[in-house]
Amino acid sequence: METKQVILTLRTKTGLSQDELAEKLFVTRQAISRWENGDTVPNTETLKLLSRLFDVSINTLLGSPRQLVCQCCGMPLESDDMLGRDSDGTPNEDYCKWCYADGTYAYHDMDDLIRVCVPHMTGEGFTEEQARTYLKERLPQLDYWKRHGELSDNGQFEAFKAQLIREINALHIDGMPPLEHLNALVGRYVNLAYPLPSGRSAAFLDDNKTYLGNQLPSDADENRCFGVLAGTDFLLVSAYGKDGADPELILYKKR
After folding, report:
1. Is the model's pLDDT at 135 over the cut of 90?
2. SS3 for 207?
3. Tens digits of residue pLDDT in 182-234
4. pTM metric for this prediction
């Protein structure tokens, strides 16, 4: 779609009149009308406001003229719900939500990212060796790794992950092997609903947020796994069967 159609579609989908949208963007109703008629397009700052308001990328607002690719892991960004978020919640067109969330980069070690990506690629026609070779050649070409020294947080995020790993291992959960790594995981893929004593079930995560976590095999039951999830303010440990079946909340702890 062209920009005029995109803006009209998003405005009507959210139930806003031209006057209401104009008020939110600090422009006139006539400006909205000109955009929707294709006479003009919003300037850069207004596109940023539209992006935040409608929760879509500027690329989408402009009719998707570019094929977006995560500049950290190289994954094609085929829809806006795959995009990472800046600290103010604005979609970031340069990164996926697994590599960048809430203004924070999830990976500062290329080998760590390769370790996470290889298992996913081996299910898509690559052997493990082919996937590893491809990533070692591809990642250094991406903007994030070219500018890693500039974008680095001087090890703060890696230190945070290491602290979380120490706290989780200090819980000494029966049957759970030591945790060695934490990966970026999007809420909707790990937000299980756990049965409560009241008979109801409850999920504790936000489907749209990115957390740190991992899955570990159970030393006590080969048919069960442990799921570990963490954020800045909580630790969560659960157990479940294949594909998340029969989930059991073992621990939810505020930090």
Report:
1. yes
2. coil
3. 999 999 999 999 998 888 999 999 998 899 999 999 999 999 999 999 999 99
4. 0.77
**What is the SS3 assignment for 42-92?**
CCHHHHHHHHHHHCCCHHHHCCCCCCCECCCCCCECCCHHHEEECCCCCEE
Q: Name every residue whose Cβ is closer than 8 Å to that of residue 253 and which is 6 or more positions away in sequence.
A: 171, 234, 235, 236
Give alpha helix (H) positions in the chain: 3-13, 18-25, 29-37, 44-54, 58-61, 110-121, 128-138, 143-146, 148-151, 156-169, 187-190
Q: Crossing angle for the helix pair 110-121 and 128-138, nearest 10 degrees?
A: 140
Q: What is the mean pLDDT of residues 143-162?
A: 92
**Among 166, 164, 162, 157, residue whose Cα is nearest residue 230:** 164
Q: How many residues does the chain have?
A: 255
CB 218 within 8 A of CB 147: no
CA dihedral 190, 196, 199, 204 (to 10 degrees): -40
Predicted local distance difference test score (pLDDT) of residue 104: 92
